[in-house]
Amino acid sequence: MSISIIYSTPSTASSYALNSSFVSFPTTLTSISKLLSSSPPHRPFRLRTTLPPPILCSSSSLSVSDMDATGGESLYPLHRTKTLHLVRHAQGIHNVEGEKDHDAYLSYDLFDANITPLGWKQVDNLRKHVHACGLSKRVDLVVVSPLLRTMQTAVGVFGGEAYTDGINVPPLMAANTGKSGRPAISSLNSPPFVAVELCREHLGVHPCDKRRSITEYRPLFPAVDFSLIENDDDILWTPDIRERNEEVSARGQKFLKWLWTRKEKEIAIVSHSGFLFHTLSAFGNDCHPSVKSEICTHFANCELRSVVIIDRSMIGSDSSTTNYPGKIPSGLDLPSDIASEKHPEEKGA
């Protein structure tokens, strides 16, 4: 699999998506042809040498010595990209207790940890931000880890509008779920929500990372789609073996590959610190160190980062919704430079 991640802000990502049929990003590679050598020959790209410092980041393992200061620009078809808005859950009770005493993470008192009152304030502030910047109107899908704290965060940030008389839709979250003291959160005019096991936190040992059964979750989160979860009980979590960092990273790459099977172009993902960190750490090795740092640092509670992922291996199959074939109606349209090559005897005429 060959996927690149471009770090951006929500406003930057949207400007690319709205204004061009191709997405143009700078690159730090000494030779762009080296980066694209595995791409099919029809994939369009162009190079320029008068651009600002480069920031294209991929999962290739290049050192800083492999980079130079001569930036370039590469073009990618817009339908070969997706915008991801990555969110770590709000503060959970395990964050509070674990910072006081790391051994607290072993306590079953923290099983499937809910978010704290402070965490709900973080959710409220992030919700205000995604509405103020327009992100709430652009998200096509919310993918969420099926744990209490991530689902509380996801529905609190990206959930729908308040109920209106005469409109009856299932709530995203029932009232007082997880001792929240919160009223029900509506699904009215919200994007669809789907729970996915691939984006869970490190599996095993810590009870805070063990989920409830799907049977228990369904009445708590009625409008969340749990159909992609195969087992009712949590068979992935074990009490004596903690998932290794490299295993989390591999799971993260599998998750990104799964995202290319989705038709949605702009996706919010609400997950966990460890999962996000180890997934993103596979990227950015060909970036300037400051950009690598932007991508590959741990997330704060309720932090949002937006990135663009690029499909350079034809994983996705969706065709462009904005490209137009031209020649409708058909007519002669041979460009002058090609005409000169076709009729060289007429060049000097």
TrEMBL record:
> Its biological function?
May play a role in carbohydrates metabolism.
Origin: domain of life: Eukaryota
| Compositionally biased spans, kind Basic and acidic residues | 339-349
Protein name, entry field: Phosphoglycerate mutase-like protein 1
GO molecular-function annotation terms? Answer: phosphatase activity
**Entry similarity comment:** Belongs to the phosphoglycerate mutase family.
Which segments carry the region annotation Disordered?
A: 320-349
- UniProt xrefs under InterPro entries: His_Pase_superF_clade-1 (IPR013078), His_PPase_superfam (IPR029033), PGM_Phosphatase (IPR050275)
The record's Gene Ontology cellular component field reads: cytoplasm
Q: Which Gene3D superfamilies match?
A: Phosphoglycerate mutase-like
